[in-house]
Amino acid sequence: KLTSLALQPVITPELLHGRVHLKCSYSPPFPEPPGQYQVLWSRLSSPGKREQVHHETTPQSFSYVEMDGANLRLGDTVFCTVTAFRRGTPEQQSLPEDSKGFYAGIKFLPESLEIAEDGKEHVLTVLSTVPIACPGQDDSCKITLQLTTEDLGSRVPGPPDIALSACQVDLLPGPCSGSSCAAATVTVTAVTDFTQDGNRGSRISAGPVAPRELLWRAHTPRDVQVTVRDLPTGNCYSFTDPHIITFDGWRYDSNKIGTFLLCRSESRAFEVHVRQWACGSHRSATTCNCGIAAQ
Questions:
Q1: Between the CA of residue 60 and those of 53, 54, 56, 263, what are the distances in Å?
Q2: Residue 80 — φ and ψ, nearest 5°?
Q3: What is the average per-residue pLDDT within 165-182?
Q4: Triad 70, 75, 79: Cα angle to 5°
Q5: CA distances (Å), 138 to each of 15, 130, 142, in order?
Q6: Do the beta carbons of residue 202 and residue 208 sit within 8 Å?
Q7: What is the per-residue pLDDT across 228-249, written as a single tens digit (0 to 9) for each?
Q8: For 210, which DSSP code?
Q9: What keywords are annotated for this sequence in UniProt (predicted)?
Q10: How far, rounded to the nearest angstrom, does the alpha carbon of residue 128 sit from its chain's CA centroid?
């Protein structure tokens, strides 16, 4: 007779003898724990399809499997399925119970970003869900990731749509907490290009830099998709003798001779100076723009 025993299998990462393992733990039913557990390990091979990688029968309330880079690789989503039965009566099994899928590898949080050309910095966390193993006793016990950006759908060469605060980040070993065994942060900012080019798409990619461990060598985290929301550009004018229209639409005239500050940004190094000189006749005193300097 099949029954549900609420085994609640959970996968956690562990470092055993310097090698990355996954541990499936489950709760034996109280007060009569069954004698044996059948544990089936599987990985997501394609959407909705699993591939078996290991199975064992054990009296313990846990099971280990190694991330060996062959059967289980970084980037895999792993499941463990547990069935309980009594010794001597393997035909009387409980209902098999699945763990939640455990993503083993490096990932970005959040997995996608929508930002605007407003100069704000957005924090992007790079984390490893498995422990960083130290191959030796030197100071190279870390995984270095090279970060790159790419504009999507840009046909005209120009400045990138996004900027990162760092081109590399280091993941250093530490105790695992929650879903993170090592983490680093980088900030993402939309480049203010003063061009009305619509909403644009970019992506951030990461790849390990020359890791010694075979496990990390072929691992490429999933890219972060970034949507840059375009903001309207402000306009101001100084024309003819000179009429001035400000950013917020005020209109007035300036007929003085001299060099004046026309515009200055309060948030960045940008200003415009204008020089005006007499351009009228003896009948009408008029000035015109005769020079401009922009920083």
A1: 20, 16, 11, 74
A2: -125, 140
A3: 90
A4: 80
A5: 18, 21, 10
A6: no
A7: 988 887 889 999 889 999 999 9
A8: S
A9: Disulfide bond, Signal
A10: 12
